[in-house]
């Protein structure tokens, strides 16, 4: 399993770009997973529903399962995301993190405006449809999922 974090300022288009990149990678034969970083105030479960009530009662893990979908909910005390990626996504070829700019994983920045994160945070590449100044050695890629998939294949996914 390879992991890359897609970072950028709020509103830079990270989710939109990931929604375009994922199908390109899947069409190339990769098994792709994602993880989205959210603030601690965000409750991923539906308050008042059975799964949330099970967690509230003390269940360590709650699996929501239907004939078509599944979701695993758990509470943790700050265990690093790496533990959960290793436990639940290790069978995938690539996990794309949305956010997690403080993680040790390689990063690609989606840049639209403001001061780029590249330079303050080490990144492999900056993806943008605008002119952007980046530190030496940082690639600038077009806002094109095919080009980013090519880059990921060359830099991370090649055997």
List keywords for this structure.
159 residues; alpha/beta; Rossmann fold; six-stranded parallel sheet; two-stranded antiparallel sheet; 4 helices; 8 strands; globular
Enumerate the strands of the largest sheet in spatial order, edge to edge or round the barrel. Answer: 2-5-1-6-7-8
Q: Identify the CATH homologous superfamily.
A: P-loop containing nucleotide triphosphate hydrolases
CATH architecture assignment? 3-Layer(aba) Sandwich
End-to-end Cα distance, whole Å, is 12 Å
**Count of helix runs:** 4
Radius of gyration: 17 Å
Elements, N to C (H/E): EHEHEEHEEEEH
Integer average pLDDT: 93
What form results from the Cα inertia axes? globular
Write down the CATH class.
Alpha Beta
Strand content: 15-25%
How many individual β-strands?
8
Helix content: 25-40%
Explained architecture:
The protein is an alpha/beta fold and 159 residues long. The protein has one domain: 3-Layer(aba) Sandwich (Rossmann fold), CATH 3.40.50.300. It is built from four helices and eight strands, in the order βαβαββαββββα.
């Amino acid at each position: 399993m390879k992991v890359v974090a897609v970072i950028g300022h709020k509103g830079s288009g990270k989710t939109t770009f990931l929604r375009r990149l994922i199908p390109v990678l899947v069409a190339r034969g990769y098994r792709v997973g994602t993880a989205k970083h959210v603030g601690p105030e965000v409750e991923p479960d539906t308050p008042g529903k059975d799964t949330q009530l099970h967690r509230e009662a003390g269940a360590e893990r709650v699996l929501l399962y239907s004939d078509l979908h599944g979701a695993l909910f758990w509470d943790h005390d700050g265990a690093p995301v790496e533990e959960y990626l290793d436990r639940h996504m290790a069978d995938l070829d690539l996990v794309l993190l949305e956010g997690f700019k403080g993680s040790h994983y390689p990063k690609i920045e989606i840049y639209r405006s403001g001061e780029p994160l590249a330079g303050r945070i080490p990144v492999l590449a900056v993806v943008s449809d605008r002119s952007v100044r980046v530190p030496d050695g940082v690639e600038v890629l077009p806002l094109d999922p095919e080009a980013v998939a090519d880059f990921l294949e060359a830099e991370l996914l090649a055997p």
